[in-house]
Design a protein that fits this description.
The complex is a heterodimer. Chain A is mostly helical. Chain A contains twelve helices and two strands. In chain A, helix 5 runs parallel beside helix 12. Chain A is globular and about 60 Å long. The chains are: A mainly alpha, B mainly alpha. At the A-B interface, helix 4 and helix 5 of A face helix 2 and helix 3 of B.
C-alpha cells in the first residue's frame, strides 16, 4: 500500500510540475504573441504594465478573474458551464505522454521514477489524437449553448473544420509510425537520436518532409489559428463560438487554445524533429565530462524546438489573411489529403525496399 | 480491482445507453452517447486492448458523434416525433436480446470455449497494435478486404446520393 501511495505521490508531483510549466508557457505566449505581432508590424506591443510590459499576462489574468460572469438569457446553463471545461481538459491531458527529456530512470524508495515523462503508454500518439478530437466538443457545445447565431455558426464551422483536418493530422504521422515501428512517443524520440540527419523529417530511406508540412498546416487548422480561424473569425462572427462568454469561462477557452498550440508544437518536435535529441550526436555536456547533466541540454533542445513552432504560429498570424470557407474545405480534402496518402504509400514502399 | 472496474464501466454503459433513448433533449442524448463511448473505451483498456480503446474514441467520439451533433443542431428536432412508431420493432429486437442474454447466463461455463492460453503472452510480447495488425493482415486478410470493399461501396453510394446532378451540368 505504501508503494502504491508513493507511486501516486510521484505521479501527482510530475503532473503538477508539467501543468505548472504549461500554464507558465501559456502566460508567456499571450505576451509573446502580442510582442512578436507588434515587432512584425513595427509597433512596440504592450509596454504599460511592468518593465517593458512583461507583467501584462498577470494583469490580463487578474482582469478576467474579476470580470462579471454573464450567462446570456435563453442559454442552456448546464451546457454553457460544461463547454469551457470540455475544451480545456483535453488540451491539458495530452501532455501526459510527451517525453520532455531523456528517459533517465532512477530509484526512489524502491520505485522506479522516470522524471521527464509522466506516463509512457504504448499507444502514446493515438492517445493524444483521441483527446484532441474531444476538444471539438467544447467548441461545438459552447456555440450551441450560448443561444446566439454567431456562436452557433462558429461552433458548426469548427465541427466541420476539425473533422476535415484531424484526418490529415492522423494520416501525416502514419509515415513516422511506419519508420519508427511504435506508437509510443518515448520510443519514437529515442529512435531519432544521433544527429539531425536521423530526425524523421530528413531520415533515410523516406524523409517525411511532406508529411511534416501537412502536419504543421493541419495543426494550425486544428488549433483554430490564423489563417484557419473561421470558428472565431472576428470580422464575420464577432468572436465565433465564445462571443457570449466572459470572465473565467472565456479564460478557459483562451487557455485551451494556447495549451493546444503548445501541445501540437511538442508533438511536432517529438515526432518529426527528434524531440529532446540535439542536432549533433550525443550532447556537448557529455563530451566535456558532465554526462550527469546531459538531460539539461536535451530539455533545452526540446524547448527550443517547441518554441520555434510557437513562433511560427505568430508569424503566420502576422502574415496571412483568413481563408474563405470553401477554400478551407477544398484545401483540406483535395490538396492535403492526397499528399498525406501519397506519403504513406511512398514511405511504405521505401521501408519495404530498404529495411533497416 | 479488475472486477470493480468492470462493474463500474458496465453500470455506466448500461445507464448511459438507456439515457440516450430516454432523454428528451437530443443534445443530452448525444452527450450520454459520448459518456458511453468513453466507458466502452475504458472497458477495452481493462481488457488490455489499448489500441481498440484509442480507435474507439477517435472514430466514434471524435468523428461520428461530432457529425451527429452537427446534424442535430442544424435540424432542431421536434420532441414529439422522436420514436416514429418503432415500438413493435423495438419490442421484438429487445425481447430477442433479452432471451439471448438469459440463455447465455444459464449456459455460462459450458457453451463458451475457454480462450487459448497463449494469447495474452503473444499480445504482451508484441504490443497489441502489432498483434492486431498481424492478425488482420494474415489470418483475417480476406474478411478484412471484403469489409473495405463494402465501405468503398458505401462511400461511392454516399457521393452519388449527395451529388444528384452528376452527368448534368458541371458538378
Amino acid at each position: 500500500m505504501t508503494e502504491l501511495s508513493l507511486r501516486l505521490a510521484v505521479s501527482l508531483a510530475q503532473i503538477a510540475a508539467v501543468m505548472g510549466v504549461v500554464m507558465l508557457t501559456v502566460m508567456i505566449l499571450t505576451l509573446a504573441e502580442r510582442k512578436v505581432l507588434g515587432w512584425m508590424q513595427d509597433r512596440m506591443g504592450p509596454m504599460e504594465v511592468g518593465p517593458y510590459g512583461i507583467l501584462q499576462p498577470i494583469a490580463d489574468g487578474l482582469k478576467l478573474f474579476f470580470k462579471e460572469d454573464i450567462v446570456p438569457a435563453g442559454a442552456n446553463k448546464f451546457m454553457f458551464s460544461l463547454a469551457p471545461i470540455l475544451a480545456m481538459v483535453p488540451a491539458l491531458i495530452g501532455f501526459a505522454v510527451i517525453p520532455f527529456g531523456p528517459s533517465n530512470k532512477f530509484e526512489l524508495f524502491g520505485i522506479t521514477v522516470e522524471p521527464f515523462v509522466i506516463s509512457d503508454i504504448n499507444i502514446g500518439i493515438l492517445y493524444i489524437l483521441a483527446f484532441a478530437s474531444i476538444g471539438a466538443y467544447g467548441i461545438i457545445l459552447g456555440g450551441w449553448a450560448s443561444n446566439s447565431k454567431y456562436s452557433l455558426l462558429g461552433g458548426l464551422r469548427s465541427a466541420a473544420q476539425v473533422i476535415s483536418y484531424e484526418l490529415n493530422v492522423g494520416l501525416a504521422i502514419v509515415g513516422v509510425l511506419i519508420l519508427a515501428g511504435s506508437l509510443s512517443l518515448v520510443k519514437i524520440t529515442e529512435a531519432q537520436s544521433g544527429g539531425f540527419w536521423h530526425w524523421y523529417v530528413f531520415a533515410l530511406p523516406a524523409p517525411q518532409i511532406f508529411a511534416f508540412v501537412v502536419y504543421v498546416i493541419s495543426a494550425v487548422a486544428e488549433t483554430n489559428r490564423v489563417p484557419f480561424d473561421l470558428p472565431e473569425a472576428e470580422s464575420e462572427l464577432v468572436a465565433g463560438f465564445f462571443t457570449e462568454y466572459s470572465g473565467m469561462r472565456f479564460a478557459f477557452f483562451f487557455i485551451a487554445e494556447y495549451a493546444n498550440m503548445v501541445l501540437v508544437s511538442c508533438v511536432a518536435a517529438a515526432m518529426f524533429l527528434g524531440g529532446w535529441n540535439a542536432p549533433y550526436p550525443g550532447t556537448i555536456l557529455e563530451h566535456v565530462g558532465l554526462g550527469q547533466f546531459a538531460w539539461a541540454e536535451n530539455i533545452a533542445w526540446f524547448t527550443v524546438k517547441a518554441y520555434l513552432f510557437l513562433f511560427l504560429f505568430f508569424w503566420l498570424r502576422a502574415t496571412l489573411p483568413r481563408l474563405r470557407y470553401d477554400q478551407l474545405m477544398k484545401f483540406g480534402w483535395k490538396v492535403m489529403l492526397p499528399i498525406a496518402l501519397g506519403n504513406i504509400v511512398v514511405t511504405s514502399i521505401a521501408v519495404y525496399l530498404f529495411p533497416r | 480491482m479488475e472486477q470493480l472496474f468492470f462493474f463500474y464501466f458496465a453500470a455506466v454503459i448500461a445507464v448511459a445507453s438507456v439515457l440516450v433513448v430516454a432523454l428528451r433533449n437530443p443534445i443530452y442524448s448525444a452527450l450520454s452517447l459520448l459518456i458511453m463511448f468513453f466507458h466502452v473505451a475504458g472497458l477495452y483498456v481493462s481488457l488490455r486492448a489499448e489500441f481498440l480503446a484509442a480507435v474507439q474514441v477517435i472514430v466514434y467520439a471524435g468523428a461520428i458523434l461530432v457529425l451527429y451533433l452537427f446534424v442535430v443542431m442544424l435540424l432542431n428536432l421536434k420532441q414529439d416525433d422522436r420514436y416514429h412508431r418503432q415500438w413493435p420493432v423495438a419490442g421484438v429486437v429487445g425481447l430477442t436480446l433479452a432471451v439471448e442474454a438469459v440463455m447465455l447466463t444459464l449456459l455460462k461455463g459450458r457453451a463458451i470455449p475457454p480462450a487459448p492460453a497463449n494469447t495474452n503472452e503473444t499480445v504482451e510480447g508484441l504490443g497489441n497494435t502489432e498483434a492486431l495488425g498481424d492478425a488482420l493482415y494474415s489470418t483475417y486478410l480476406f474478411p478484412f478486404e471484403v469489409a473495405s470493399l463494402i465501405l468503398l461501396v458505401a462511400m461511392i453510394g454516399a457521393i452519388i446520393l449527395a451529388k444528384k446532378d452528376i452527368g448534368g451540368s458541371e458538378a
